[in-house]
Amino acid sequence: MMTKKLLALIFLTLVLAGVAGFGFWYDKKLLASKRAAVKEVLISDFSQDYEKKAQIEETKPLPAPPKERALKLPILMYHHIGNPPPNPGKIRMDLTVPVENFKEQVKWLKDNGYHSIKFSDLYGYTLGKTKLPAKPVILSFDDGYQDAFDNAIPALKEQGMIGSFAIITQYPATHSGTNFYVDWNEIKAAQDQGMEIVSHTQDHFDGKNPKYSESFILSNLKGSIADIQTHLGFTTNILIYPYGRYTPKYIKLAEEAGFKLGITVHSGNAVNLDNLMEIPRVRVHNSTTLESFAKMMQK
């Protein structure tokens, strides 16, 4: 009799444990699903808002630095490398450089004596620790799009060049509409192939929007550094401002977070060595022909 009661008690205990275990598993799965849904909504908001915000990017040239403090260094700005999706918006189209165009541009750089460097090389140069090659150039890729990693890296390697890829550190392995973001394994593989990985914040927030508090900005910037440290094992001190939008206070917070270089979308090909937190770039468009690319580089 005792044996039957004991067996019944054991059976009941196992049933209750199984129910509890299933409930815990289900709760975890539901929470993960909710988190994924929230993240997808946030990224979807970013995608839908990009067309509008990209039109107010801060692209006008910065004040020219004194000649003795100006370093001639074209920093090329890319986003997507590939074919545009069906029915792309005006901005999406402009951000997408065809693969063949990109290959021609990289080959032109190689044939004309340019040497690709990293942002970290530029920073090392400002400290007197790194010597730059003749005709240096930086090829930068914003946002961490899958097509840029798939198409730009082979083209760069074919010509013995490197690129600098700015990652929105909470976006890897996600997608929004036609924007697909690489995962951390692919980012690590790119790093292992000599590519540079830098920060583009955690979630591509607009640095001029007054709704973002100083504590949010500082936390987000520090978080992007921590994300890269966690996944790639190193600490970056290079920040590319989303939309090129920032304020003097934002710059101070970025410096407090640990950044030494701030990369803008202001148009220009000379670095002001006295203002490393406002470095201009040269945008490459979908419509940029090889002839116009050559003229752009020779300014």
The CATH topology of the largest domain is given as: TIM Barrel
Number of domains: 2
Query: What is the C-level CATH assignment of the largest domain?
Result: Alpha Beta
Helical segment count: 9
**Silhouette:** globular
**How many runs of DSSP E, i.e. beta strands?**
14
Rg computed from alpha carbons, rounded to a whole number of angstroms? 24 Å
> Could you describe the largest sheet, including whether it forms a barrel?
8 strands, parallel
Structural class: alpha/beta
Q: Could you spell the SSE succession in H and E letters?
A: HEEEHEHEHEHEEEHEHEHEEEH
CATH superfamily of the largest domain: Glycoside hydrolase/deacetylase
Question: Mean pLDDT, rounded to whole units?
Answer: 88
Termini separation comes to: 97 Å
